[in-house]
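Q: Given only this backbone (336 positions), what sequence would you predict?
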């Protein structure tokens, strides 16, 4: 398959540039019959005994602006992930970076240790105090580059489940949930379990032209706890469905079931779900509408087949909002 098979035309007007309130007032397209709903109606679309699995990762306050020592030139840095004592970071302007360059960001000093690769370098960080505490206090949340709106509250780009810091971007399917919605789901007999997957920027980058089989999938740190494995087993015994809230949850659960059965697991996942894949754990999926020619688009196509084009065409025709702060869709019966 060619990567172009997962392309479509996404008009600028369809990209959500506002985080609407309340969160669950976003729209929800039910794929089974292409019916229109509000996300707040989710309890009416699920059944008692169903289990929602969410990603509890929190977006790191990882964006910094500062200067290059010696020249005073303006620089930007986005911390991606720790690599032992060093950090992987996206820096701009990358072309001027080389080992030994020192970048000043107020409470943080970064010394470049490697030459740029795709704009990324490894840096040593010097801070007064624990690094994660200083980053959380001094950094800003890195909003998606295609979002040009304004957030009055930066935590609007955090889900209500966010508790473990580590991601460079939010698991956006869970941005639609509110405490009241969770309470109503619980009263309807729908459970919630958690996994962790640290969302990286490669998730959203378009794939290069060429054969899909040649695409190298990025790695992301994940964890599926024992309590979640037990909750999934209980749901299966009681005839409930496992609904993944977001593609990151799909990848986490399906990686942990790679040996033939689901088991508690943590580590690094590079699972590339593409057409021909048959899910072992996930019965349904709640997800936003994704950018063209991304691995997220491939995953959706793998789960719902060629129908994805009709689904996306319908969403565009009906004015659904796309990407991180956009609307969502509900896919069911993936293993039937």
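A: Predicted residues:
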């Amino acid at each position: 398959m060619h990567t172009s098979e997962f392309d479509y035309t996404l008009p600028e007007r369809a990209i959500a540039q506002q985080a609407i309130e309340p969160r669950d007032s976003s729209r929800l397209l039910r794929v089974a019959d292409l019916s229109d709903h509000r996300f707040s109606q989710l309890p009416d679309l699920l059944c008692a005994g169903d289990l929602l699995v969410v990603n509890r990762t929190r977006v790191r306050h990882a964006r910094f602006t500062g200067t290059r020592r010696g020249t005073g030139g303006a620089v930007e840095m986005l911390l991606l992930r720790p690599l032992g004592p060093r950090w992987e970071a996206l820096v701009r302007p990358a072309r001027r970076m080389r080992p030994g360059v020192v970048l000043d960001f107020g409470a943080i000093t970064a010394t470049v240790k490697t030459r740029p690769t795709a704009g990324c370098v490894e840096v040593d960080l010097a801070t007064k105090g624990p690094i994660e505490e200083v980053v959380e206090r001094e950094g800003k949340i890195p909003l998606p580059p295609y979002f040009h709106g304004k957030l009055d509250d930066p935590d609007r780009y955090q889900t209500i489940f966010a508790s473990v810091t580590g991601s460079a971007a939010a698991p956006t399917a869970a941005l639609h949930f509110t405490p009241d919605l969770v309470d109503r789901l619980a009263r309807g007999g729908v459970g919630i379990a958690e996994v962790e997957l640290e969302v990286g920027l490669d998730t959203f980058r378009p794939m290069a032209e060429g054969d899909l089989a040649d695409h190298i999938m990025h790695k992301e740190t994940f964890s599926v706890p024992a309590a979640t494995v037990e909750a999934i087993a209980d749901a299966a015994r009681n005839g409930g469905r496992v609904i993944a809230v977001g593609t990151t949850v799909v990848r986490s659960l399906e990686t942990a079931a790679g040996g033939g059965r689901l088991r508690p697991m943590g580590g690094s996942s590079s699972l590339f779900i593409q057409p021909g894949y048959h899910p072992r754990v996930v019965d349904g999926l709640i997800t936003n509408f994704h950018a063209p020619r991304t691995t997220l688009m491939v995953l959706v196509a793998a789960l719902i087949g060629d129908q994805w084009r009709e689904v996306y065409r319908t969403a565009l025709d009906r004015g659904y909002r796309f990407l991180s702060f956009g609307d969502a869709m509900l896919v069911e019966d993936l293993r039937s």
